[in-house]
Automatic annotation (TrEMBL):
Keywords: Isomerase
InterPro entries registered for this protein in UniProt: Asp/Glu/hydantoin_racemase (IPR015942), Asp/Glu_race (IPR001920), Asp/Glu_racemase_AS_1 (IPR018187)
PROSITE patterns: ASP_GLU_RACEMASE_1 (PS00923)
Full protein name: Aspartate/glutamate racemase family protein
PANTHER family: GLUTAMATE RACEMASE
Pfam families with a match to the protein in the record: Asp_Glu_race
Keyword ATP-binding applies: no
Gene3D superfamilies found in the cross-reference section: 3.40.50.1860
Source species, domain of life: Bacteria
UniProt entry tagged with the keyword Phosphoprotein: no
Length: 261
């Protein structure tokens, strides 16, 4: 079994770690183009072109499924990716976990990139899934970039700025960018208020990993032997994980790099 994941940068680590936990025997292909990120401010057409390039690099390794572990690419490029790769390679997109967050009651905050915050796409999801639940959209300028660079001070500043915009009574925060999941506990610490119920964070990594297995007819087998190999593609070229990635626990869950030939 081989599962590929794609993103502009290291945001794909969260979903890759879940796949690794669910199926330690699965080979993983991580395809990204960090030199072109962030994708959020780019035009939809530009995002689609770049996403197709990253996806084609992954597809060349003949995976059983491709996870689009990027909210921006899922918004702007999913139809193009599916038109090119399916049905031979199932393509699984990433959607902000607004529906499960709203199901738990409000108030809810959605942390997302400035380009996604207030977008017709996100507003549509809120209207469809949040119903009468109070939802606050919180822009997080610079947070994805800071996570990508593993810049601790910049992460702290971006998280603090977004926390200041988050209502004090929120019960749940939707992490609307895959990079944010890598610093979820720092977000929790910044938003949790003394005396309030424990804050619930809603990421997408678990859902997309489980959906990828369903699409290829595989069951979770967390006790399987950890025989899965890892291939890392940076701008289409086999490489190793960037040094910045290794600062995150999710990267350390992955197997050692084994070039796929």
């Amino acid at each position: 079994m081989k599962i590929a994941l794609m993103d502009s940068g290291i945001g794909l680590l969260a979903a890759a770690a879940v796949v690794r936990t669910l199926r330690p025997d699965a080979d993983l292909v991580l395809s990204s183009d960090p030199g072109s990120m962030p994708w959020g401010p780019r035009t939809p057409d530009d995002v689609a072109v770049r996403a197709l390039t990253v996806a084609r690099a992954a597809a060349a390794h003949r995976p059983d499924a491709l996870i689009v572990a990027c909210n921006t690419a899922s918004v702007h490029a999913l139809p193009a990716l599916r038109a090119e790769l399916e049905p031979s390679i199932p393509v699984i997109g990433t959607v902000p976990a607004i529906k499960p967050a709203a199901a738990g009651g409000g108030p809810v905050a959605i942390w997302a990139t400035p380009a996604t915050t207030g977008s017709p796409y996100q507003r549509g999801l809120i209207k469809e899934f949040a119903g009468s639940v109070e939802v606050t959209e919180v822009p997080c300028p610079g947070l994805a970039d800071a996570v990508e660079r593993a810049d601790e001070d910049a992460i702290d500043r971006a998280v603090a700025a977004a926390a200041a915009l988050t209502p004090r009574d929120v019960r749940a925060v939707v992490l609307g960018c895959t990079h944010y999941e890598l610093v979820s506990e720092r977000i929790r610490a910044a938003v949790q208020r003394p005396g309030m119920p424990p804050l619930v964070l809603h990421g997408s990594a678990g859902a997309v990993a489980a959906q990828a297995l369903r699409r290829i007819g595989a069951e979770p087998a967390p006790d399987a032997p950890p025989s899965g190999r890892l291939t890392v593609l940076l701008s289409g070229t086999e490489a190793t994980l960037p040094a910045e990635a290794l600062g995150y626990a999710e990267a350390r869950l992955l197997p050692a790099v084994t070039p796929a030939h």
